[in-house]
Amino acid sequence: MSAATLASTPDELPSVPWLIAGLALLAVVIVTLAVRPGLFISNLVGGLVYGMILMMIALGLSLILGLLGVVNFAHGALFMIGAYGAYQVVALFELPFWVALIAVPIGVGLIGVLMEVTVLRRLYGEDPLIGLLATFGIELMLEEATRAQWGGTPLSFDPPAVLRASVQVGFLEIATTRLFTAAVGAVVVVGLFLLMYRTDFGLSIRAGLQDQQMAEFLGIDIPKRFTIVFFLGTAIAGLSGVLRGAEVGMDLGMGMDFVILAFVVIVVGGLGSIFGSVVSALLIGVAVFVTPVMLRAVTTVTGLEWLYVSGIGGLMPFLVMIGVLLVRPRGLFGEEGLLE
Amino acid sequence: MSLLDVSDLEAGYETGQILFGVDFEIEEGEAVGLLGRNGAGKTTTMRAIMGADLPRIIGGSIRYRDTELLETASYDRADLGISFVPEERQLFPRLTVAENIHIAASSADDPLPAEEMFDLFPELDAMRDRHAKNMSGGEQQMLAIARALVSNPELMLLDEPCEGLAPQIVERLEDVVARINEERGVTVLIVEQNVATAMSIADRHYILDEGRLVEEVTTDRLREDDELRQTHLGV
């Protein structure tokens, strides 16, 4: 058998339906670029930034789910408290935004530790449903506490001047808050990657993910590692809350909205894969922002008004999830059997 | 004072009690076998010594030097100088060979150089970057032993290290474990179904039957006393 025939196994060549789907998508992108270039690019950037926020929430959630086996529903509330905490620091205490950027994630992380030590620690090894219910309860408590403290009306605060400006990139004007969010997201993901794959601490976490009991037999203090991971995961949620709050403000629904989307990101990316969460979050972020523009462009060109589905952006995460799960049930980059 | 002193140990699972008052002692530098049929309580004893989540301890004590292990967290037992080669090996499947060894070394106070492990098992040297899940059973067992040894333990517990392996690998591992005991002075407690393996490594043996210690014998007597082997071990 020649090398050429060996290479053309079905796995390596896209099948005809995939080829058609890819070409169709490419055609739509080209049409959109021709009809509305400015809107397309700016929504692409918006989608990537939105994806960065989703990514940070999903990474924390995924870390906690992977190591502790707990579906932390309260993760969204901690994200929300990050945003309200920033409001408290910037608008009410009148301290610089940069103080909020450092102090609020630490504060949110400490709330996370409190949750872990008082409630979740008792639930490890139990039915995951119990953890889900307990954290759902905490989510509701935190949401009501937020309402009691800051009221039910949406709030916002003024970010510092440097984050209210915008920069010109080619013909495109990008708000500096968005660039800043993207930069912080990149730092978080690179930092997390280095921590997990370049340090002994990360090695012990990865070992604990695979076989907790054996890691303890080797002398690794797993309960302490759990608490540290919980702090990290929830502090990152708090940090994304601060960034989101600076960009669009805050309301009581944001926690629930984002935690559900973060679950979708994890499922699509594949549990246990940092890389998977990153790709999936960016993909979903872009899909949410770009799909409406693309559909609008297609209806403009074809005149088929029924092709435009209003609210399609909000549906996209779930459509992407259904599509990915149909083709690859363990997610894009998921490791086989991690949750089995 | 003995290195390990198990006394009146009772333990079990939700399905029922397995150990009904097990007593034995191990002196420093010894190699001791813990023998018995399937279900006699050998693995349960090992897991109780290591402090696994299960079995549940019902009563008794396990002293290591001056420390009561039953009051010591599982992860602190390793720091006392105890290492474990569990049944089924329990390697970290998605860590590489080098990482599996490094993680044990990095959590030990006074580890041996990883290179010494690769000298001991040259096979592992050639596959440092391979994930543990992609190794053969024999290679995995070598890695499990290397991982237990690199922490420079005083006491090494091995639970059926030769189960399901080819005869020439078994011979090789027997030799390595015997040398770990003789040349490095590591105290060894080995659980084996395979009596020949236990005899090649240990000088004396405790025999468990239905959760109770029924005999303490030397290797010579075990070899000669057919009736004893037949009664308690079925071989």
From TrEMBL, chain A:
| A Pfam family recorded for this sequence | BPD_transp_2
Asked if Transmembrane helix is a keyword of the record, the answer is: yes
Compartment annotation: Cell membrane
Which GO biological-process labels does this protein carry? amino acid transport
The reply to whether Membrane figures as a keyword in the UniProt entry is yes
For this UniProt record, the keywords arranged alphabetically read as follows: Amino-acid transport, Cell membrane, Membrane, Transmembrane, Transmembrane helix, Transport
Annotated Gene Ontology cellular component terms: plasma membrane
- What domain of life is recorded for the organism? Archaea
Q: InterPro entries, from UniProt?
A: ABC_transp_permease, BCAA_transport_permease
Q: Which GO terms describe its molecular function?
A: transmembrane transporter activity
Q: Where are the transmembrane segments?
A: 16-35, 47-75, 95-115, 179-197, 226-246, 258-286, 306-327
Membrane topology note:
Multi-pass membrane protein
UniProt xrefs under PANTHER family: ABC TRANSPORTER ATP-BINDING PROTEIN, BRANCHED-CHAIN AMINO ACID TRANSPORT SYSTEM PERMEASE PROTEIN LIVH
The family classification in the record reads: Belongs to the binding-protein-dependent transport system permease family. LivHM subfamily.
Its recorded name reads Amino acid/amide ABC transporter membrane protein 1, HAAT family
From TrEMBL, chain B:
Taxonomically, the superkingdom here is: Archaea
Keywords, A to Z? Answer: Amino-acid transport, ATP-binding, Nucleotide-binding, Transport
In terms of Pfam families, this protein maps to: ABC_tran
Q: Which InterPro entries match?
A: AAA+_ATPase, ABC_transporter-like_ATP-bd, ABC_transporter-like_CS, BCAA_Transport_ATP-bd_LivF, P-loop_NTPase
Q: Which SMART domains match?
A: AAA
Q: Which CDD domains match?
A: ABC_TM1139_LivF_branched
Q: Which residues form the ABC transporter domain?
A: 4-235
SUPFAM superfamilies xref list: P-loop containing nucleoside triphosphate hydrolases
Q: Which GO terms describe its biological process?
A: L-amino acid transport
Alphabetical list of Gene3D superfamilies matching this protein = P-loop containing nucleotide triphosphate hydrolases
GO molecular-function terms, A-Z? ATP binding; ATP hydrolysis activity; branched-chain amino acid transmembrane transporter activity
What the record says about family reads: Belongs to the ABC transporter superfamily.
> What name does UniProt use for this protein?
Amino acid/amide ABC transporter ATP-binding protein 2, HAAT family
